[in-house]
Write a structure and sequence with these properties.
Length: 525
């Protein structure tokens, strides 16, 4: 080899080494940038799980004062996070409360302002008729113009799932979960069918999934010669496929499947809405704890041999499911960066199957049966609320910030740093979660056309209520919640300036409802 050739080889080898090092550096840099980029895209925002109990009273979990029903997992969630003492549902009844949650609009503006079954289609209250004809299932749809909070999350990269009860649009309309922002849905489209925990079918996305249960109509009574103290007499009301268990399995699977991406899970449990139907292990536990009971044999919902034990069993089973959700999040390493909200869609049931006095279901609120579910009184709309997010929320904290369902929409937008797609009524409580300065609502507003027509408003410590509005205009009743949480003493005459202010808000808050079903005579509709 000549000297000249030797020099060329050295130069070539050196360049080759430099090239190898350069390529190695580029690959490492690309890997690091990609890793951090993916981490930022997927994990800069929290996962969100919104657990909505159904007809759970303010005082029906341990951390809110319950003495008879055991809820250790929900209590632990509160210990890890924050209790909201002054949180309100969207409405005193089911469907409009969920509409407020999904739309960010209170019941003076949200499209679904009341429970109102779509009876023009036919016999919508017959389980048999609905089984034969899916067109009879479900409730009236929300308009196409509505963009739900699930759609906002989906548009910002979240995988979105829902299990449980929908109630905001019938099958074959544009207002089913899969058309309103949810990638995955498993549960009840129709809230009437949700009056049974052992229905003939559920919906998986847009298709029916038939269950190993047989048809039992809602008012189907015990056999005439039945022994009401014999468990066998109630066997047809407790079958094989218990839907809270089926839906819970799908929820856990959704979390597992989407663990590597941001996800939003709307967990709309049926529990503890009637009928009284619970897993046997929990029912047996409370039968032993409570002792012998007088059976419920009425027809409004299915009979129960031990109504108190069964009711408690349902809530403890929901508590067990909350615990399993937390365990799953810890298992996949996502607990610390998951915002979990636990609350209820309205106050406890007014029906006699639930012993409001025994359970103190409304806690320190007025628990008269005309002051709970269906009522604008505190027992009908003030609900328990817990928020857990270990990365952000300090442990064992409590706030008296006045909030309501429409605020969830605003909070989501605040966390994502995006503007709502239209003007909503919600106010973000994200600053409260972070222990930062929190803006306050000027007022909260509710209305309902049923129950003779009602309006409710909260303005700081003041609460205003109008009832019997379907009979015409009514005078506002005024209560000072700091001094009269039971809402027994109407002080409207003593504070005319406050009444005048609230009357202005009542006019300002509402728009005319589009559907006749939701119109209120006393408000000029």
């Amino acid at each position: 080899m000549t000297f000249y050739n030797y020099i060329l080889v050295l130069i070539f080898n050196k360049n080759q080494l430099l090239m190898k090092n350069y390529l190695k550096y580029c690959l490492i840099s690309f890997f690091v940038i990609t890793l951090f980029s993916c981490e930022e895209n997927q994990k800069s925002n929290p996962n969100i799980i919104y657990i909505l109990a159904d007809d759970l009273g303010y005082g029906e979990i341990g951390v809110f004062g319950q003495k008879h029903i055991e809820t250790p997992n929900i209590d632990a969630l509160a210990k890890e996070g924050m209790i909201f003492t002054d949180h309100y549902s969207g409405s005193p009844v089911c469907a409009p409360s969920r509409s407020v949650l999904m739309t960010g609009l209170h019941t003076g503006k949200t499209p679904i302002r009341d429970n109102g079954e779509w009876g023009e289609r036919g016999n919508v209250w017959s389980f048999k008729a609905m089984l034969d004809n899916p067109e009879l299932e479900g409730q009236r749809p929300m308009p196409d113009s509505i963009i739900t909070v699930a759609q906002v999350l989906k548009n910002n990269g979240y995988k979105t799932g829902m299990v449980g009860k929908w109630g905001l649009g019938a099958p074959n309309t544009n207002s089913i979960p899969n058309e309103k922002g949810f990638d995955f849905f498993y549960g009840y489209n129709c809230q009437r069918i949700a009056h049974s925990y052992y229905p003939t079918h559920l919906w998986k996305n847009k298709e029916r999934e038939y269950l190993d249960n047989y048809l039992v109509e809602k008012n189907e009574d015990l056999a005439p010669d039945a022994d009401i103290f014999d468990e066998k007499s109630y066997s047809k009301y407790n079958q094989k496929d218990y839907t809270p268990t089926l839906m819970h399995k799908e929820a856990l699977n959704f979390i597992e499947t989407n663990k590597d991406e941001n996800f939003f899970l709307y967990y709309a449990s049926l529990i503890p809405h009637l009928a009284l139907q619970a897993p046997k292990k929990w029912e047996d536990y409370y039968r032993k704890k409570f002792g012998k009971e007088e059976p419920f044999t009425g027809k409004s919902y299915y009979p129960s041999m031990t109504p108190k034990a069964t009711y408690a069993a349902m809530i403890s089973y929901l508590d067990e499911q909350v615990g399993e959700i937390v365990l799953k999040l810890k298992e996949i390493g996502e607990y610390e960066n998951t915002l979990i909200i636990f609350t209820s869609d309205n106050g406890p049931s007014f029906l006699k199957e639930v012993d409001l006095t025994f359970f103190e279901s409304a806690s320190f609120l007025n628990s008269s049966r005309d002051r709970v579910k269906g009522s604008m009184n505190e027992g009908g709309i003030r609900v328990p609320m817990i928020a857990s997010w270990p990365n952000v929320i300090k442990k064992e904290t409590k706030t008296n910030h006045i909030s309501s369902f429409q605020d969830f929409y605003a909070t989501v937008c605040d966390i994502l740093k995006v503007e709502p797609p239209y003007q909503i009524d919600g106010l973000s409580f994200y600053p409260t979660l972070k222990d930062e300065n929190q803006s306050k609502h000027e007022y909260l507003y509710w209305e309902i056309a049923a129950k003779s027509g009602q309006q409710g408003i909260r303005y700081g410590k003041w609460k205003g209520i109008k009832k019997n509005l379907q009979k015409g205009k009514q005078q506002l009743k005024l209560y000072n919640l700091d001094e009269d949480i039971l809402e027994l003493n109407d002080i409207a005459e003593k504070y005319p300036e406050i009444v005048s202010k609230l009357e202005e808000f009542l006019i300002e808050a509402r728009t005319n409802p589009q559907l006749d079903r939701f119109k209120i005579k006393g408000l000029g509709d």
